[in-house]
## 1
Amino acid sequence: MAQIKVEALDKSFGGFHAVKSASFTVEDGQFLCLLGPSGCGKTTTLRMIAGLELPTAGTIRLDDEDVTMNRASARDIAFVFQLFALYPHMNVRRNIGFPLKCEGIGAAETDRRVVEAARILRISHLLDRSVSGLAGGDRQRVALGRAIVRKPKCFLMDEPLGALDTEMREAMIHELRALHDRLGATTVYVTHDQLEAMAMADRIAVMNNGVVEQVASPRDIYDRPASLFVADFIGSPPMNFLPFRGGLQTGAEAIRLGERDVAIPAAREAMAESELVLGVRPEHVRFTDRGMVRGEVYGTEYLGTTQIVTVTTSYGALKARSPSSKSFRTGETVGLDFRPDTLSIFDKASGRAIRTALHEGAAHG
Amino acid sequence: MTSATTAHSVVEPSATTRRFAGSLVILYAIITMIPLVWIMLTAFKSPDDAISYPPKVMFKPSLEGFCNLFTTRSRQTPEFIRSLGPPQGMCDEIARSRNMVVAGPSNYVPRFINSLIIAFGSTVLAVALGTLSAYGFSRFRVPLKDDLLFFILSTRMMPPIAVAIPIYLMYRTVGLSDTRLGMILLYTSVNVSLAVWLLKGFIDEIPREYEEAAMIDGYTRFQAFVKVVLPQATTGIAATAIFCLIFAWNEYAFAVLLTSGNAQTAPPFIPIIIGEGGQDWPAVAAGTTLFLVPIVVFTVLLRKHLLRGITFGAVRK
């Protein structure tokens, strides 16, 4: 097992700058998700770690060894592809044993390790089947089998659940996490699905336009987003943004929003008068007649135990999560206020989150 | 994966429609087969039956065409023929009945062997080179890729005869004219553009994850190409090989201009088989019939691949 250290990694394809100075570290045994919208450079980053692409600049270290320019086969890693990449002309047993054959390991040892991998993944009964007849989930298990049979330094996975249907995906999320807990292998997992990332990862690196916006635990990513992009990308529905103009002094515990003061976590840096954005998660919006923001109920979305209420205000449409038991009429005037200790403040120009008491006790990415 | 479903056939055709379509296909097949059947019939006719008018469909079969194809004969006086011993085999007997004796083997067999060597040699070369460059074009960021591919294709945009004279002069200078090597190189260069374009389509269809997985698992790129890509490209390779072989086997214009005594192939040889008093049609027909055999055998052997390959990778595995 190994630590992966990516430093100032850059990749350009012709005129297209796919990855811009990406840096992060995956500790030994950690499960890191590279999360971002399509085209954000997450797959390119993963392929550079694998050695399938060579970086334009930067270094990649595996256990302190510089492998930046090593060929893929010399890195001792396993890669799981979205389309499984099972060889159609081989059966399950030969597919799983293929990496060992490449390494020139003997038939008896190969067979022992293939059987063991199949047992871990509960596909022992499929070993002599052809891969073309397998269901999606079983194909992905075979692909995982081909990865774990090598006992590599780390696993790299490129949207391995992307081709599965929702039900199979749910099941595989738990299996993958259980497999990771059991093997304790360093894993880098690329996905555009925040639910997958939240459910599996120890740490998440959120990427956008080739830039790593934040690397932190799922909880920190959700509660303390480092940028407007992260706040907007994570969460369903995403964070509400209320633009305002103002300045901040170190230690300030309120901002001026329209006519009224809104309590915020104490500021830990000063900000000159500029365009700022107040960020509020829907579940931190409370309905109260004395609320600082007033608006009209536009509509509700019923989600079972909770409902999402959309309220039209002078700051635009705000979404609030409320218990389903409460009833709202469309057109009704309501007052809203926000849980002060959870609010985020962003600098609109740079998108960066301003440091406040919210970030204390959390590793800031 | 998913089974192939055809998007266009929303409604199954009715039995009547199907029968009508079937009869049309059979009718068309019969019409296209007539010249072929006629050639084969002519091969077994006597010279008189071959040129009789109205043409004979029913006739007494004879192997004279095949005898004349494989032998050269000389005319002798009946006295001389009587002075010889008993005839040496069937062909000698037929020749003597026409006051001739077999003088020796004809050039058909060496020409046929030339055809085999040149056609198969150039096919192997064109497909090998085509597979490698198609893989390169398919997988790597080649500078000016599109221009290069167009340039490769542009070699097929004019009839081969347009370049025959310059090639003749070049070949004469470097000593390649009338050599098998020269013809193999020439047919290879004509076919390689076809091979690159056909095979690029097939290789594009093979997900690159396969070889990337193999490369991560410890193979070099070349090993991954040989052990992972090639087995999956067999359909395309077989289809391409058939197309290349058919071209090289049937090619006439270059063969007429660039070969004569040494490396001449069968196509320029067959039509000039001269018998007594003009063209020996049964011999020409016999030569043509035998000439069809290798290509038919090769195509039948590879037909499973050809049927899938002819859709040019439109059907996913």
Note: The two ends of chain B are 7 Å apart (CA to CA).
## 2
Amino acid sequence: MRILRAIFGHGSGRIGGLIVCVYLLLAILGLLGLTPHNPITQYRIDRLHAPGAAYWMGTDLFGRDVASRLMAGIGQSFTVAFFSVAFASLAGTILGLAAAWLGRRWDGVVMRIMDVLLAFPAILLALLIVTVAGPGTWTSVVAIGIVYTPIFTRVVRGPALSLKTREFVDAARTFGSSSRYIVTRHLLLNLVAPLTVQVTLALAWALLTEAGLSFLGLGTQPPAASLGLMLSDSRNLMETAPWLLIFPGLAIMISILGFNLLGDALRDILDPRMRRAFA
Amino acid sequence: MNYLLRRLATFPLVLLGVSILVFVAIRMVPGDSITAMLGTEAGLLTPAQRDSLAAYFGIDQPWFVQYWRWIGGILHGNFGISVTYGRPVLDVILERFPLTLELAVLSMIIALLVGMPAGIYAATHNEKPSDLGVRIIAMIGQSTPSFVLGLLIIYTLSAGFGVLPAMGEFAPLWQDPLRNLSQLILPAITLGFAFAASVTRIARSAMLDVLSDDYVRTARSKGASARSVIWRHALPNALIPVVTLSGIEFGYLLGGAVIVEQIYALPGLGRMVLDAILQRDYALVQGSVLFIAFNFMIVNLLVDLAYVALDPRIRLGEQ
């Protein structure tokens, strides 16, 4: 509760939180199919219909309702973003804690593997994984998850290493606490703040990467709707039907903006040392 | 010096990891390269023809022999033959690389020219409306995907001014500088926009940090002018985070900007890799990924070395 109040007391947190809430609502409605029209029904008589009362954001080349497709697409993008970030943060936390706690050889092996993954530009690595596994929603989840795992590993390992040498960990050891107890209680609980910030920011990147993959035709497959795919489809029609470009473009931009603002606010709130630096 | 040697010593290890990863990954892509290369015509090949093609590209061997040959070749400067282009992989890569390099340099120039002054301005006008304005624009910039911006630029130009970005045959810089620039300026702005936004944010926060330091206060109390405080005392120390960010971003851009190249139909490294993956051009994917990873590591090393140049107090390699 306190954190929610803090977010809404923070300038960018308020805006970011509001944006994220609205998108979550749209995503849920989109996933439940509670859209103004069926997102894949083709109203052929109304092809490339300009925005109006019947179709709020117009229709596309096949006469499908853009607003409904947008909602379905947001649902799709958010599903991929949430699951991939869940994957990356879980895998990264486990690897980072293992590297920090087990030390020397483990640390070396884990961090070298992460170095290898980090030597790839993110989108390239994602592309490679998607091509190997074949395009699709769950492939995107795994690909984006793997791409962002090294970042979480680093975010966890650094602080975990310094926490490990602190007195309270020594004290816990002296009291006879098990390794598992120390790692989950003393290390992990102290890492919740940096992880929360990282998760929020990672959601923004995940949305971006998902849209990029779909844009290249390697994410969500048609006829299912996805923001990247809608943008890609708009390319040849943007002069006759600019709404096909503008609405999905704005939708992607604002969703990323929402998570970035929220992430910034959380960083201010949870990490007072960084407050001014990243205000 | 020691640090440099130790860092260089990790290069082969990481590159070995990258080489294994990409070698295994590209072989897990369903389908084979000969079918991908010839399309429906592949069906017309006799088994003997197919075998001789496979032998020519060396893909008839077991995977470990292929890997061994590949690595051995690289040590002799031979990256193999691209199935799609029918030419040595390194030639194909080096033909595409100048465009990618130029695009990365142009984007960084734009980002620094816009981002640094904007960041310093915002920091020196902290909490004033102009600072807020800069921060809002930077936040929006950072949240705008390059493909959204690229498409919006193309749309604005074509719908508003009736012009299309210069496409067609790409003109290398040294052949036709003017035409080259006209082809690259919009992609560079597209990539540079978000980059500039990041630079603005990091420059602002670094500058704010430094401006509150004791030595800056001392300089001020000694009567140094505001200009001298900012440029002589504060800026050099505020540069380190900017260098880090720009370096990392530049390193990524050297890997090719797949989507922006796609939008502006530019023959850069990114699109080449994408096509190579889709065509299952094993040798080309492997070679280019290794090339990109190597560049990325070199850039990161240079960034680390730049720290020492900017701040003599930093001793690299110390924990």
Note: Chain A is about 70% helix and 0% strand.
## 3
Amino acid sequence: MRVAHSLYGRLLAWLALPLLSLGALLLLQAGWQAKATADRAHDRLLDAASLAIAEQVQWQDGRLWLDLPPAALEMLAGDAEERVFYSLVDQQGRHITGNAELPAHPGADAESGDTLLYRDLEWQGLALRQGVRRSRLEDWRNRERFEVRVAHTREGRDALRQALLRGNLAGILGMGALAVASLLLAVRAALKPLTRLRHAIRARDPRTLVPLELSLPRELAELREALNELLVRMRRVRANQERFIGDASHQLRTPLAGISARAELALRDTDPEAWRDALTTIQATSERTARLAMQLLSLTRLDNPEYQATHRPLDLNACVRRAVRDHWTSCRQAGVDLGAECAEGEVAVNGTEWQLEEALANLIDNARRYGARRITLATLRSPPRLVVEDDGPGIAPERRLLALRPFHRGRDDGEGSGLGLAIVDGIARTHRARLTLDAGAEGGGLRVELRFAEPSP
Amino acid sequence: MRLLLVEDDALLADSLLTLLRAEGHQVEHLADGDAALARLASPGHGVDLLLLDLNLPGAGGLTVLEALRRHDRETPVLVLTARGAVEDRVRGLDLGADDYLGKPFALDVLEARVRALLRRHARTARLVLGPLELDAATLGFTLDGEPFPLPPREQRLLACLLRHAGEPVEKARLVEEAFGGDPMGDNAIEVTVHRLRKRLPAGRLALRTVRGLGYLLEAEG
């Protein structure tokens, strides 16, 4: 299993990431806005100062004359002790007067008219904000054009920008902290049902398989339903096991009681011949009981609703030959002729070897118990078939279906457990094979056929 | 022969000890897996046949088998188990068991399997079945101590059947061993079996046909 990341951490990361980028954007925007506001405020000062200067320009003695109003410059020098520069330039670009020869503005020409043009400027090692106003004398005699250039250093603007930014920053950081805190709380609250579910599972009695009853949000309710379905399947398996234990103890108790009674009776007797009889019976009964226990186990495993067969390609002929080898000696001792009639080559099916062997063992055993003298195991191809035919009494057509039911026993049979054919039926089902019971070739006996699907290539 | 029986059920072990000792074997009995592991740890254990239960206290039977097979591939092992499923048998045989008996088993079946295993892994060069004896070195048969001469094919066929006496041998295998895989062997074998059958002493040795499978040699009477 891969190491899972914390759901809490993941949620937090995905929510915090956009929040942080949003915060960063807000900060950037606040910076721009502070600068723009500061510039706007101070640009208005530049505007006013340049206008005041322009109004004082006169024509005296055949040239431009400026009587600089001190208020115009004081306006520009704020509390931050900026340095203030101005210059008056005539139409030809000649410096007329001023405290500095400020450079021209590239956009200032005839079209720009009587508006102030601003720009940020690096001049003689100073960062300046410059305003350039083109104007003309409003005298009826002389309409000489001139240019007023004003500039100041940026200290005042920077101070204002920082003050504005500080105010904004506090707001943004406060909001950010609030958002992160509510995020933490929200994620924690959203994950709370998960914690509840965990506690509920942990607090359960491991032996109980009752469904989880717990109200949960929809997404987790689906998980709870999946868990409950698993529990239902486990209940079915357990019910199957419990039924087996019940069946087994019931079925096994009866012959054991017989053995015990027979032994007790024999012990009361003193005749060795009676002991011998009793021992023979006890041996036969105990063998039958052991076989019954094994059959019960096979049947339960096959009946398990959760049983998943893992079939592999195998050769039916090999199964038949092995079954004949395994059972031939015991059949011969009982006077039964066991043989095989295999199709040429291989008869391939998908199956589970031990189950097919178990099926054959049960069919051979059944045939012997019901009095067959000759048993033939055969294979046929297209479709692959496994056939067990005997010359015993057979089963009447109307009783054939009934014979497949567990614990059903033929009328004149004192020995069988009634499980053999039920086991074969179970094995046929796990192989998706069709089980048919018929009369033998000559009309007598029983012919059991398992018809398999062709194995997919 | 020295047999080692590893079986924890006292009643069953007692019966098997009685049976095998009556057959003239020296039988040693251990009741748990750890003791068996220790006993079989080194190659010089001197056991000719191991009868091994799978469900043991201490180390399990399959563990014992695995440990033995790591240093000893020769000693035959007969697995006895109550775990009825054939799955277990497959696993046991995969790990190197030579044969398998599911409990409960009939004592005569056990006897036959033990005899077959001992014969197959015999360190002595002589195979015996009833009155018939094969000297593996010369491949010569004797019947009641008298030489029993046979044509080469019949001799090879009988040797093969004798090695597996008491169990059905598939026809294909007989063709392989007695006729060297000769493609004509399939028909020839029936003729050879027919001839051989007539030579065997009636009522003492029987060469039986296992319908659709092959043949089996057993002693009678």
Note: Chain A is about 50% helix and 20% strand.
## 4
Amino acid sequence: METRPFKAKVGLELHQQLNVGRKLFCDCPIMEYAEAEYKILRYLRPTQSELGEVDPAVMFEFRKNKANIYIYNSKASCLVECDEEPPHPINMDAVKAAITVALALGSKVVEELHVMRKIVIDGSNTTGFQRTVLVALDGVLKADDIEVPVQTISVEEDAARLVEERDDAKVFSLDRLGVPLIEISLAPIEADPKTVERVALALGRLLRLTGFAARGIGTIRQDINISIEGFPPCEVKGVQKLDLIPKIIEYEMMRQYHLYNVARLLKEKGLDSISSIGEYVDVTCLFEGASSRIVRNALDNGKKVYGIKLKGFRGLFKMEPYPNVRLGLELADMARAYGLGGIIHSDELPAYGISSEDVERVKAYLSVEESDAFVLVLAGERDYDALSALRQRMLRFFEGPVPETRGPTGDGRTRYSRPRPGSARMYPETDIPLIRVTRELIEECRKFVPKPWSEVLRDYMQKYGLNEKLANQILDSVYLGLFEKVCSMTKLSPTLVAVVLTEHLVTVSREGLDISVLDEGMLFELFQLLDSGRVSKESVIDILKCMCKEGVSAGDCVKRLGLKPISEEDLAKMVHETVVSNRAIVESLKERSFGPLMGMLMEKVRGKADGGKVSRLLKEEIAKLLQNI
Amino acid sequence: MEKLDGYSGALKRLLEENNVRAGDVVKVVTGEREYVGTIIPRYEYASQDFLTLKLLNGYNIGISLDKILSITLIEKHSPPSFKSTPPEFKSKNLPKAVIVSTGGTIASRVDYRTGGVRPALSAFDLLSVVPELAEIAKVDAEVLFSMYSENMTQSNWTILAKKLHDYVSKGYEGVVVTHGTDTMGYTAAALSFALKNTPVPIVLVGSQRSSDRPSSDASSNLISAMRTSIEAPFSGVYVLMHGWVSDERMEVHLGTKVRKMHTSRRDAFKSINIKPAAIYENGRIHVILDNLPKRKVPSSFEIFPNFDDRVALIKFYPNMDPEIFLYLLDRGYRGIVLEGFGLGHVSSRAISVLKKIIRDGVFVFMTSQCIFGRVRLTVYDTGRDLLEVGVIPLEDMLSETAFVKLSWCLGNFEEDRVLDIMKANIAYEFSSRTFLEEGERFGD
């Protein structure tokens, strides 16, 4: 990876759902419940600022002019989430959680808290703004040997959950709207991607130790600001998995470095944006008899084919110095964000049923010469904004990386999602009174400040007799609560329980199985079976796999897999017979015959008998036989 | 002592000494750290020991006076300089319309630098915030009052009625009144009685979510109200608001039959004991009630703009002390609308007092605190006793409408006509038939 000439600067912004019983500005419980009792349809309208300015991100959403449909269910939401009732007083437990974290990070707690409205009109908030309150400033996060300055700690309401994006509307579920989040912004640091992951881990651990952090998928999200030296940052929003962080940073560094190189290359060629990037030309007439299915479909839907010439760009679109880093992809991702199917560029043609004759006709029509490129966009009359945004993006190919809001793809890549918002548009939430942070309140929170991770780890290792690796894993695990419950309610060894809940589940999920179907009740039943001896620890992985695949209980899996344990008597008999019938091996190998015989036995009894028991019986039988020789 | 941008006492002195005030960008040094930000005006009732500062990241925080070591000016505030441009009307043939504003801010701008919200008041300003209006009509705008609707009085109704009479007489084809929602129902009733035979529909409109927020119902209500006023085939006085919590269906209610039935929902306004007059949906008006007065050329348009404020609306409650009525008599009240229990009852020990005040010349009318349904004083003894002493039942009329109507009757007509006029159906305030689907519980 040739990104060395640049240092990346990475800023993390962590959002963690707070487990404080009820939502931030109403009395609704915190739960997922997206079954529609009612559906509400709404439009959001940007409020003009006093200066009549237009925020690029706000206009991006407004121009799409999509309706927002909100799924309401009274189990999880009330009139407050519907924006039909003023907010209730703030949930002080959420404020206390933030103050506790602030104290743990050595931050300065704000003396009087002001709830603000931050304008967000992508539909994810029914009000058109997110309520947020700054609780503390400054502080330092210590992650092993590194210290990262903290910028701000705030408490805010989570957004509604996007469940479907249709052509004409976005569909959101209101259940998540209003769930209290803590937001911690760290100062950008120059560090390698792995170090950034460690920083994120340290911050996540601190939050979990306070006991205020909700656990489970989607309860923690990172926004990552990434920039290469001398250029503005791109923000990757909503990264949910820790191990994606280094991949995303690496991808962004490569992508931004490529954009830098493209700009440099264009400069070397003596090109500039104004003379290079042409205007759109309607080339629909050239495709009237075209056989390309993509083009045909578009034309049948009343769309047109627009061509634009890019002087001196030949070969630049397909250039792929790193995996999935291409100029063509930059434009295609953007086109999709604006609701177009994508773009077609000359570097990839002929393709998609567009013949070389078609290409020649377009080239002639647009006066495209040998060293030039062109881009075709299939767009309708209403796609004016998309076309204009794409051309703007082409003009900025001469600048290197440009600021954007991007989203993670799940495989470590990122994808354009919208323009970067201007400076945050905030104004006071006058429905909520100001909150005085008294000395008493701070002292109350001080009691919740957790011990450092290293101490908690040491205590845990001692209490449960775990090694350091397992103790770390189980403390980081979403199953920490289950682990403690199983250890207190069964006679199982804590190490076994920890191994099952961490390593075994990782093994199962690596095989592509969905472990999210396993709820705590199902897992607890498995441990009860283990505890009663009805299941051997050797069969746990097979049972877990079966549970994931079939979605049934551990007990059912034991039946399906025919894992009825062998009785003590039968097992002794089986061991005895194996030793007798392999007498020759025992006689020649003596004690060393244990290995091959154990292998033979385990093949027959795996999952039906405890390996330790088999080993003990086998040693006895071998010893008996050898004595008799 | 006068406040400086909401600050008083030591903080006010500190700001004055340093020659800074709200809007200025300053550096504030405390024992702990330095803050750079904009001074924000202090709310009236907020504690006076804190300075509100908007930091560069957009957040407001309060810094206690005790901690402040120094405040230094960085940049003096210069007010934002937005100038609305004259609207472009799409067609020369657009009808003339007017938006008369009485208080509720139907459109506004936010100064995100200081968090201030400024209402859009002039026609230009309004059209730049709600440009859709320019496609419907050539819109004039007038700010008649700037008040919370809870402060409206009978004299405001008079001024408003005269103003609307002027506009309609001048040939305006669309007349929309923006109004705070708390008393919009009362004002709608007042205008329904004051303006007789209005040739075009006068539409009152408000918003349940303030216009500074992206989710506000203000502009969709305003646009729908304007279309209704210009295009509806009927005339009269109406209230237009959301029909449900979705931004899809607006309901057009008769001014005498409408009541605010929820403290906060967008669809708070409901027609009581009757269906809405019309539905506005997808840009179209669907008329629901038969027999609405037709839109017409002005010919017999008349105005009766006066209201007497010596009228009370009293809700009866268990064990209410009847002496209260004597107090009203002493204070010179000329009429009382009672909100009785159920079919129109009050406790029997109030009857002798009511008898006395009626004999002394006070008009007493009966409505029901049930809101839905019709009063009927002939069913139980107490009702018959009330009739006997001269209490007049008002059928299915809303108590608020009855209050307004009585005030209007006493303001415009001789006392000997009051009973007849109160019992006559002037502006759809009575409906002779109540149907099963009407009068349903407020809900969905």
Note: Chain A has a mean pLDDT of 90.
